[in-house]
Amino acid sequence: MRRFLPLLLIAVALLMDVSVLPVLTQHWLVPRLTLCTVSVLGLLLGRTQGALYGLVAGAVAALLTESPMGLFYLLYVMTGTLCGLAGRKFQRYLLTVPAAPFLCFAIYEGVLMLYMFLAGRSFSGRDALHTLGRVLLETLLCQGLYLWFNHMLKPSWSRYAGR
Fold first, then answer.
1. List of residues 6+ apart from 10 with CB closer than 8 A
2. How far apart are the first and last CA of the chain?
3. Which residues contact residue 87 at a Cβ distance below 8 angstroms, ignoring those fewer than 6 apart?
4. Tens of pLDDT along 53-105?
5. How far apart are CA 116 and CA 121, in angstroms?
6. Is 160 part of a structural domain of the chain?
7. Cys staple from 96: which of 10, 70, 90, 107, with CB 3.0 to 4.6 Å?
8. Among 82, 1, 85, which Cα is nearest to 35's?
9. Can you give the residue range of the structural domain that contains 52?
10. Whole-number pLDDT of residue 31
11. 159 within domain boundaries
């Protein structure tokens, strides 16, 4: 059961992202739960499994939303890989858990803003503040998800876990 739990978590996050959250609010501060889930799974399970779950989540998210197909693949795989790399290489440092998702979310938002700029949309300072607020909210959400997923998945069986 533990083997399929990350896929179940991604499926629930995708359903929340696609069906529940857009109906409840049309606010700019809505977090991307699927991206947060991929980030936390990468932190807990390592870069290979983080990239795999990022690929699965990116593929399904790109199919379910109106978004450029290859861009979501790339960004979700990048998030899972970078968070997994940081989670394993720097797991003894206290700031790894907040810093890795913050960096990945900032890169994600920056690439999406660049894509929208190249597509012809203009930006203001308010858009930059909205982006920063969303990145901070998603980083805070990752802290709670990290504690919850760590309790559920118990990744101490990993070869990288402290002995």
1. 34, 37, 38, 41, 53, 56, 57, 60
2. 24
3. 42, 43, 44, 46, 50, 96, 97, 100
4. 999 999 998 888 877 778 888 999 999 999 999 988 887 888 888 999 999 99
5. 6
6. no
7. 90
8. 82
9. 5-154
10. 87
11. no
Residue 125 to residue 56: CA distance in whole angstroms: 34
The candidate with the shortest Cα–Cα distance to 83, out of 69, 104, 55, is 104
CATH number at residue 30: 1.10.1760
On whether residue 163 sits in a domain, the answer given is no
Rounded distance, CA 103 to CA 93, Å?
Answer: 16
**3-state secondary structure string, the chain?**
CCCCHHHHHHHHHHHHHHHHHHHHCCCCCCCCHHHHHHHHHHHHHCHHHHHHHHHHHHHHHHHHCCCCHHHHHHHHHHHHHHHHHHHHHCCCCCCHHHHHHHHHHHHHHHHHHHHHHHCCCCCCHHHHHHHHHHHHHHHHHHHHHHHHHHHHHCHHHCCCCCC
Instruction: Give the model's pLDDT for residue 101.
Output: 94
- As a whole number of angstroms, the distance between CA 97 and CA 119 comes to 34
